[in-house]
Amino acid sequence: MSEHESFVRTRKKHKRRLDDDDLAYEAEERDHYRSFFDDELPEMIVDGPPEGDRWSIWEQSEPLERGPLPYPEWLVTESAAVDYELGVLKTGKEADVFLLERGVPGTDRRCLLAAKRYRSSEHSMFRRNDGYLEGRSVKDSRESRAMANRTDFGRKAIAGRWANAEFGALRLLADIGVSVPYPVQIYGTELLMEFIGDADGVAAPRLAQLRPTPLEREDLWEQLRRGLSMLAREGFAHGDLSAYNVIVQDGRLVIIDVPQIVDVVANPRGAEFLVRDVANIGAWFTARGLSPDKVETLTDELLKDSRLR
What we know:
Blueprint: H1 27-30, H2 43-47, E1 54-55, E2 82-90, E3 95-103, E4 110-118, H3 141-149, H4 152-176, E5 183-187, E6 190-194, H5 214-233, E7 236-237, E8 246-249, E9 252-255, E10 262-263, H6 270-286, H7 292-305
Antiparallel strand pairs: 1-2, 2-3, 3-4, 4-6, 5-6, 7-10, 8-9
Helix pairs in contact: 3-4, 5-7, 6-7
């Protein structure tokens, strides 16, 4: 089974499990890519393209390490494409997000991508590693011990698992129609996805930054309700939902930051995560005039959708 098939239907509907054995971090195979543009990279990458920062890594990923078919028309997949580093979008404790432009030199074929690069040995632990992984099996005892002891290999394994978990989650959500950034590809601990923002590289604002009108608030709530319902019907919860990991572009609500997606059936705390998600983001909406009854109703709906009630 390939590493991203942990989100493929291995059980009947609402009975699927996450199998971290399928999200295993291929440390030895991918170690050559531990830094992105340093002098220790293989000769084919160090030499680089005639312009840009590196050749496109599109063909370096296997089919299941790319987004679901059909590929969107805006996505540049040509082998002659190069990647241009345009700057940092966000820094975090576990990963940094960069803005890339992938284009074919001499043509107008261009697209903007967000590159999320998970850190590994720089940090002793991932703050979200506990609790979310309940219900996911780790069959490699050596890797499991290394992760528990936070050895250098263990920290790299954790980074790899989070990168693979986020890519797998985005692939699943995009495939069932949830509004998320399209997952372009994964290579090692680098996750490339659709950039949500304008053509000039200005990222869309987070929900927390908005001051919606009553009509806009109701529309955003309805979009959120539909997305969470689709997720719950597949047996999952976001696990860390708040107004800070939802962004809005031209009225379109987009859910982001999903490496900790929770299998609410397999995880003994699944219902707790689901209820907490709704309470956290519901508090933002009620503070801006949404009826608290709608938050309570959504919680009940999601528990039923996921067959926890």
